[in-house]
Write a structure and sequence with these properties.
Layout (H helix, E strand, L loop, with lengths): L1 E6 L5 H12 L3 E3 H11 L2 H11 L6 H12 L8 E4 L5 H13 L6 E6 L2 H9 L1 E4 L5 E3 L18 E2 L6 H23 L4 E5 L4 H19 L1
Parallel strand pairs: 1-3, 1-4, 2-3, 4-8
Antiparallel strand pairs: 5-6, 5-7
Helix pairs in contact: 1-8, 2-3, 4-5, 6-7
The structure holds zinc ion.
């Protein structure tokens, strides 16, 4: 089963992708996490990606497509994949469709996590990530028992460099310009669902589970 998770910055893609991975047993790939990893290791992709991320803009389509082509050849993803953060533009979506079609595959579910910009911005500004276990915590929803320390594993919490107000605004501008047309592309092609994520996280999780079970039953 191939699942694409779409949504504005702060819509909850990372959080829900991890839960979908738990629920379905499928591997989760976050393009943002992979890019940040490449930046830290200063790989060729990382060095180029960093210039764009520092400017709050998107990494060019051809980089992203070359990366996803390599990724899809890995046998780890034979049974399926949950992609979060890719594609982000119409050319990326068209490129992905072609890559999948060449393998006799297609997306089974394109899920848009929908949220207002104000709610998303508030969420991003109170978001921290654990440097050890990778858990994403929202301090506005649930403060940690010891400030700065992950409740789950005791690791140190980090704020992402691009979760500051100025960069968040730029990411929303990019989202409206590049990603909203792509959402329309998928909306017109079927297998497209929307879930409002501006609600209690457990209610959202349950709705996503019900949806996945329906899609999974229909595709198996
Ligand atoms: Zn942790």
């Amino acid at each position: 089963m191939i699942v694409l998770l779409l949504g504005a910055p702060g819509a909850g893609k990372g959080t829900h992708a991890a839960r979908i991975a738990d629920h379905t047993g499928l591997p989760h790939v976050s393009s943002g996490e992979l890019l940040r990893g490449a930046v830290e290791r200063k790989t060729e992709l990382g060095v180029k990606a960093k210039e764009h991320m520092d400017a709050g803009s998107l990494v060019p389509d051809e980089f992203m497509l070359a990366w996803i082509e390599e990724l899809l050849d890995d046998s780890v993803y034979e049974s399926g994949i949950i992609l979060d953060g890719f594609p982000r533009t119409v050319p990326q979506a068209e490129g992905l469709d072609k890559l999948l079609a060449a393998k006799g595959l297609a997306t089974d579910l394109v899920l848009l996590l929908d949220i207002t910009q104000d709610a998303a911005a508030e969420r991003l500004l109170s978001r921290v990530t654990c440097g050890k276990c990778g858990a994403i915590h929202n301090l506005a929803q649930k403060p940690m028992e010891v400030p700065g320390i992950c409740d789950a594993c005791g690791g140190e919490l980090e704020t992402r460099a691009d979760d500051v107000r100025e960069t968040i605004e730029k990411r929303f501008v990019e989202f409206r310009k590049q990603t909203e047309p792509m959402i329309e592309y998928y909306r017109s092609r079927g297998n497209f669902e929307t879930i409002n994520t501006n609600r209690a996280v457990d209610a959202v999780r349950q709705d996503i589970r019900d949806l996945l079970d329906r899609v999974s039953a229909a595709t198996s």
